[in-house]
Records
---
Amino acid sequence: MPGADGQMRSLHVIREKFEESVHGKQLCVGCHKDITQIPHQKNGNIRVGCVQCHQDLWATAQKENRTRNYAKLGTVVKQIDRYMKSIHAQPNREDQSRTNATCYNCHDAHYVYPGGSAIRAQWRLNIPNICGKCHTRELAAYSTSVHGREVLQASNPKAAICSDCHTTHDVENPSMDSTRLVITKNCGNCHEDSLKSYTQTYHGQVNALGYAYTAKCFDCHGSHAIQRVGDPKSSVHPGNRLQTCRKCHEGATAGFVTFEPHATTHDYHRYPYMWIASKFMLALIAGVFLFFWTHSALWFYREYKDRKERRTRPHVQTHALSQVPEKYYRRFSLAWRLVHLFFALALMILSLTGMAAFYAETSWAAAVMNALGGPRVAAIIHRVCAVVILGLFVGHVVYFIVHFAPRWRTFNWFGHTSLVPGLQDIRDIAAMFRWFLGKAPRPVFGRWTYWERFDYWAPFWGLTIVGGSGLLLWFKEWTAATWPGWIFNIATLAHGEEAFLAILFLFTVHFFNNHFRPDRFPPPDIVMFTGAVSLEEFRREHTLEYDELVANGQLEKYLVDIPSPSMTLGSRILGIVLLAFGLTLLALVLIGFAGSIG
């Protein structure tokens, strides 16, 4: 006879099968409540309300405080709530009086079997045919796919069926962003390693942030007619891959074909370039922090101990100081202070926008991206800041050429006034460690110390790796036309790892050297904002330069008035804000790093 959806259905119930179902102990009239006599009324309108029945039973269990005894019923009610919000529960376009699909379109009410039972596993394999009653084209395509052949022909219980991808009760329109995100996540339920490697690409990072516009699994591999990669009909077969890439990247060149979207760093035989690059970056990171964190820890110990014993209370009395006791030494010009400020601000914003993508699976990353207006806006901000830093870098190189080219023969390139590293830096490092260990007095330095020289040259190295890889990723069509596609994998790895190294170094080692040493307390040090340093500190920290200026009678040429109270206050506020911003970034990155290895 016809059911509520107008389709003819059998009234025959197999007793043995029914008794194995979850409704096996239920009386017929428990569901068919409008049957009140035998024989049944002729032309009766028999209606069964699955939703109302389960909700009424759950309401009774709650009223009687017996919800623990009916936990499975509570699960069903939650499934009903999700179903009511799904596309299946919406009115049918052709017949507004009925929904797109009811409970019994998917479940045979007489044969609903408990999870884990053998008969339910058999029923599961038939779900594609059940869905295919409405979705005939999708079933036809699925039947030809690698998933469909495994399910419908080989009866493989582990192969994907419709509900594995589209979910069960809360099925939504596949064109919706939320659905695209859910289906991608569901692919990872079976293809865990592939989802993990996908998440490490920019496509996957944007996806993890909750945005659906970048390529998902099905955008590349197809949806219902997925084939194995080696099958010529597969959309990711080498012969079809460029056409697939061009669905999003219209200007894609042959280099796109050799990009490895699922490359990992632990498989040398499949991805040798990634393996080598990752081991190099790990060795670099480990080497840098093994040295500098040890250096900082010993330095802190030495200064703290000396400060506690009141050894660091110098009292400078020289003829220069006695003549001009109210003067400071001008260490940095306004131009250099502005360059430092713009560089610091641009770098911090770069760090925020870049690390939010790098650690896209963290909750803070999603919050940052939402606050910035999404990954597209964040990418624009990121690139603007990158251009600012590149402009500062190029400007510095031009300044260097113009300023030093006329006197390249006479300038002492390895002297204490030069930023070029030399053998003296190695001697100074050794002397500093002897002081750390109490084996020698603290060494004296000239205009530039070895750690300041390292700070100076580190951006050259960083810009080469981060900037170079960033340009390759930014201008991807040009990159793919010139380089093989695996260069994208290397560039992505190097870009993120070198940025991670730079952030940790700047906000731990650099901050310690300049702000958090016991001799610098209380932070922040504001010399880079005011440009001036007290003569006492200048003589103590840069003794060789001080002595040389005094001996040559040139000290007074560099003396300036003490920074005004307003300048000092403003510099301290700016310094505290930048320190707070930097330390916050450091905390976010460490949270992301801990989550990535957890």
---
Amino acid sequence: MEVRTLTAEEARDDIVSRDPATGREIGRVPVASSEEVARALSDARTAQNGWAKLSFRERGRVVMRARAIVLDEIEEIAALISEESGKPADEAIAMEIVPTLDLMQFFARKSAKLLKPEKIDIGQYGLMGRSSRIVYKPLGTVGIISPWNFPWAIPLGEVVMALMAGNAVVLKPSELTPMVGVKIGEVFKRAGLNDDLLQVVTGDGRTGAALVEARPDKIMFTGSVATGKRVAETAARNLTPVVLELGGKDPMIVLEDADVEMAAQAAVWGALANAGQACASVERCYVHESISEKFIARAVELVKSLRLDVGTREATDIGAMSSERQLNTVEEHIDDAVARGARILTGGRRNETLAGSFYEPTVLTDVDHTMLVMRDETFGPVLPIMTFKTEDEAIGLANDSPFGLTASVWTKDIARGRRIAEQIEAGTVMVNEVLYTHGIAQTPWGGVKQSGLGRTHGRLGLLELVTPQHIHVNRFSFIPDFWWFSYTPRASKLFRGFAQRFATGNPLQTSLLLPQMIRRFFERRP
């Protein structure tokens, strides 16, 4: 979508994008009306017919041209992500651009294989000249409503998968990071994609609501539980399918045999990367009491060494939070925890020396599940640490949450780690790893419970963007089916024989029905 410069009178309907670290205006975009959203969806639907007829190879060429543009302009894109979201530019490259470059080449090259028609084993029906297979067809037009915390990686990955599956896309980026969304549209336009195939509609919540109400063929939404429920309710009225990624309160379990140094480093990065504003951030850290003192001391030491600064400045570890509103949520959670007996070991306050929305990276101990910081999504640079005595207690604490996006288990005993992982209620559980699996294009991403439904990424994510069609063929079309009319006494006896023998799935049992089937065949002949 073109970025306009509006008059003062028009600007009241404009979204002004500002750097949360400095307050500097980055750009302005219009608030798309319901009519504009409906028109964008209609244009996308018209363009999709021709796009769907292209081969996977032809679609992949467009994606790879877009990838080349991204790689060529990586510094410019990283700076834009940093300026709009507040995160360090290096982190924008490591956590957003690099994963999407990998994702683009993976789906450009592998979508044909991932969506290859599949033959179905239909058992004994195959002996009767029947065959079945599944073919995968594009949905049509996909509406993507993306968040502000990963304004490049989340929508771009979904755009690529939707396009490779043969769909058109209408993308509504967050009102906090609209310029990144506009940049995604520009990249694909320059790569030769038909303008109408990827429509970027900027705006606020009203624009997102208009997109859902416009009846796309699927909605991909990433955001809060409350908004996700409203999206689902609206979509349900039109039977529009949805994929919802609604955040998490992700636990990290550090067992007594874990490598304390590695676990501490992982906890600090997992909790504080992107200023803690990741759905898969470590928001609850459970450490075995026998190693807790050493673990906590090392975590505090690491946190104190981090540099808090403007994201575009060199060597910044933690940048500004994306909005003052989110910073206020962090303050509320910290104040509640302290009031209930938690201790702040470092941080725990707004930074007063930097002008923007900066919060000191924080380590909390003496926390429990009565506190907001252990119950609700904090989405900020906070690492709350709680101890446990037994493995079963740790699993119980990890599962004591309405969320279930990711989790991690830390141990030197891999078999034990896998066994515990399977008992944790989460869409992804990592053993001796944390946070980053959203960056693996080949693996599915999504949660359970209040963390949402459906999947993105991997083959499971690609399957969300197609409709499976079952094709069934009867090669023995000259033989009438035994179960057709008329229902004679002989047919009645054969049907009961099917129940007793054919339905066992055993061809030897079914063969005992051959005399009855032959009689039924001749009974049906004129």
---
Amino acid sequence: MRKYLPWLFILSFLLVTSAQAAVLENNYIKIIVNDGPWDTGRFTLETTGGDPARLEDDFQELLFGGADPWSSYTTIRIDGTDYVFGGPTQRRAGFELPYGQQVAGPQVIGGTIQTTYRIGPLEVTQILSIVRSNTTGLDDTMQIQYRIINKGSQTHRIGIRLLLDTKLGMEDGAPIRLGEQVISTETALGSAQIPEFWQAFDNLENPQVIAQGTLRGGDLTAPNAVLIANWGSLADKSWHVPLTGQGFIREGEDEPDTAFALFWEGELAPGQAKSYTTHYGLGGVTISRGRLSLGVTSPREVIRGQSFKIIAYIENIEQGSVENGYVRLELPGGFSTSRSQERKLGKVEGGRAFTVEWTVFAGEMARSGASYTVTVGGDNCEPVTATRQITIVGPPRITLNCVPPAIEKDKERWVLAGDKAREPIWIFPVKVEVANRGDSPSSVEINCRDVEHVALALPYDRYKFIGTLEPGQSYSFIWYFAPQSFSGATGKIEIVAKYMDWEERARCSIYYPKLNSQLSLKQRKSSVTPGDTVGLDLWVRNAPALGSYSAVVLYDPLFLEPVSVSRGTAVRGRDFSWQQVGEGSIRLEGNLNEQRDVREDTLATLYFKARVPGLAELKVIPVSPVYPQVDHIIKIEEASK
């Protein structure tokens, strides 16, 4: 039973309309994300068909909340200040925490549900998807991922706390099986104590739902800490809570209510992005029943040359004790463990449950499809055996390739070679191709580590998160880079793909030719007759580090009479002047207030009155900086009668 603040319950009843939701589901599980108007971005997880071999777990809850998710929520910490991810809430979980600005979602994009919020200087995206469980081998697990980009100008200390309000069907307080521990009281785990995964179920005789949270290994981001406590304590506090060692029953109530809080902490530099990923869903346990019931779990697929865990759950389901209990692991050829394969359990009391764990190495001679066996027994107790098959796969192998553009110069503009339209470009597209040529899936993060003579077109666009690439799958995208000067250079880029514990690097070079600085005059109207006023814009192109300029304009006073000169858009503020320095000569002075590279902009606009028909010559002679002289002719036609 959930607690509300009394007055808040009434208010919620009056104001909350039926919840909207973004939904992602398959034959095993369903993810539901709240679309508001309250608790936007919060999610729940349910089974649909669940484990195909077990009818008991069909259409059961794995997280509390049903179609109106609210009790599981995520805290984003920035420099010690806590914010709730998503929209405002009217209920207890995260009540009165500040929240950010909704940017996008929740929306189904491909095989994900994505929700993005801007929280202070950070842009945070929650990405939920359905992935394969490492113990069932089925797509019955929710991947929870947060991608954070620092769009500010300073480094920030950041943190994420993910609160999962676990619920196993009708069971809300099942013990947690974590390594060799059976946890039924509040527990805090430091980083060194965090296992690869935990599982939860009520009993081995007839478990209704077997849940699993996977915390480390492969593509996952191991938390810095984990708290297991009653939901109320975690819901009321946005970060750590003091643990008293009590069970999972909330104060003042009589029903257990288990919840998990996962913590990640670190720093994020300006423009930097990080991704944090964990899994929660169904767990695979092979169960054999007897006086000593046995459940065995391990990954369905293991990578050759790496270690993995085999875990045996043992429970005496009867009242009487079993003397001289034992558990024995039998491994096929090619697999080995440094721990004794037989463990003495001694006297196993009635109702007692405990766990035994082995770390096993898959060697070069290990055969895919082989099975191991775990047997448990004792005096006057028939042995019970459970067998699980292991599939051996090779590691992922990510290949990375970048294809730079071929850049040419046309009329003092950069253009792409082969572009028939000869459209000018100011950022250079680099095609990046990433593929998984290995035998197992892996998520991939790509970052641009070293850049020379070019710069990222978007300063914060240094990281790309590709997601999971299955064996044989590839992905390509365009990364944009900007030149650092008009002087021409060969830009050098190093791109790094990070996956598992490996890195793959690719380097490419972008050559771009020098662009010469130019001035030009552009006449505003083509038809000019005596008495007309004609305007001419003085343009500058490809001007590096331009801070100020001066120029002399020569004109023929027989044909033209100066009217006025106005500053161009490149000149900021009022620091611009012009004066007539003699018959047929004008001096221009302009200050840009700062030195900056000017791609193409106007320095001034000159206005002349046409006097008589003829060809009026104009010359612009730059004084500072020194650019090539500009010549222009205005054709003044006779007025039509």
---
Amino acid sequence: MSTPNQIDDFFTAKSKREKQSASQKTKKQGLGWLRQSWPSRAQLHQLPRVLNKTERRIALGLIFIFAIAVIYIPISLYANGTTAAPDFGGSYSEGIIGEPRFINPLLAQANDADRDLTTIIFSGLLKYNPQGELVPDLADNFKISGDGLTYTFTLKPAQWHDGQALTAGDVVFTIQTAQNPDYNSSQQINWQGVKASAPDDRTVIFTLKNIYAQFLNNLTLGIIPKHLWGDVPANAFSLSELNLQPIGSGPYVFEKLKKDNQGRVKSLKLKSFENYYEGRPFIDNLEFVFFASEDAMLQGYKQGGVDGLSLISSKNLKNFSLSNRLNVQSVQIPRYFGIFLNQNNNPVLDDKNIRLALNYATDREALVTEVLNGSGTVVHSPVLPDILHIGEVTTKYKFDLEFANQILDNGNWPRDERGIRTRNNRELNLSITTSDWPELVAVAQIIEQQWEKIGASIDIIVLPIGEIQQRIRRRDYESLLFGEILSPNPDPFSFWHSSQKTDPGLNLALYDNNSADNLLEDARQTINPIERAQKYDDFQKILLEDAPAIFLYSPDYLYAPSKKVKGLEIRLVSIPSDRFDSINTWYVKTKRVSKEG
């Protein structure tokens, strides 16, 4: 028999079941109504016929807006919550004028192709950042003694591309090789009076005999591996296959090169160094393609052979229809071009009146306007005021044909029946030797026309850059139209001191003046920058009075990399190859990363 409580539970449960059944029935009726209310597929097909033209447009617009919203909302959330970041992968190719001969930091002085590749493959203790400031490279840190004579460097853990550990012994070996005259390195002058020692594998100590204010500039020199070069004798140093199959410690590893039937290097490939001490570079593969001239390089670019150009002249920049694929940059660089007069090879240049007249007969402004299209500045001295921050030079040989002719008239250089000036049966004849770089050829031709107006007979000798380098080594020219590259903290010693008149020195005018020598020596040992600048100012006054050269202009460096390359920021470089000092941070691939991360 059921109790009252059991009866209550029964009716309570029954009531709940009835309510649930009623609720489910209502839901089914509602869903049924919705299904009955929603148009069938057949009805949807008939919808365009039911709606008028305006209603159809409104309906389509609403459908389009709905579809866009469905697509855009997740994309917008992803884009707003993430940001583009460098990623690994990709490749980049660049055209270079010339070809590599010595991919070796101790031999790559006068060849742009060599210097470019050396910068990428080798590392120095220091390097320049995009603002032209010296920063640590292989060096982890360094300190300078109070007397300015001892520099102590601690190295980062680093490897050579063949897996061997880079040690302080490699640094000492590199410096001692540079100092040895048997190796004929152009770096020799920078390391005179310097002792390098390695108390342990991570420490290098440089001890100087005399204070050298610009010593840190020298520490950008690439370090070469002792375990590979140590057994190469001096007489085979420039002949070693390592000069074209280099092993360094920089961000990229030599992979292979291609030569043509004549044995000329046509291209060279590099790959990223995974064990690079600053981390694996972003771009996986680099290729450099070498051309005999700028015109050939531009043609190669038009045919898709390269992504970017190592440089472009202002003339071609104006005339060449550049595609949107190039990011042309005008980079400040401390260099100048001039005509260096070799008095040893042409006796007429012994006459100071001739040198003065040639200076006054040179219209430098015309060169900047006609050849550089305004992309450069006139210079009157090898001491660039924007670099050394000294006062503007007081001695300027401003263009004055009348005065130039007057100097020659007063110097007993009359014109003959042809209009050529002669004295003691010797003609005022002078050859100008320069490279086949179109810009320099154009400058030589304009100067020829200018100097002919004062009765000079001019011959122009145009040679490939390789032959020019050989002529420079032998000082085999009467006058040389060429450029000299300084540094952000320059030392004119190697360009103008009398001890540098022969190879590997770079005194191209064979200039010799005791007073100038003393000032250059003293400036090197003057730490105070204001006092040092004053000595350089005094030096330039003496040099300009002697007129051993005709200083012309300082051109802008026009670099044209591909727009696909990101992370490239260059404002000031010491030499064009320094554009690669931060190449490990360049990238062509990106990935999305969380902004919070």
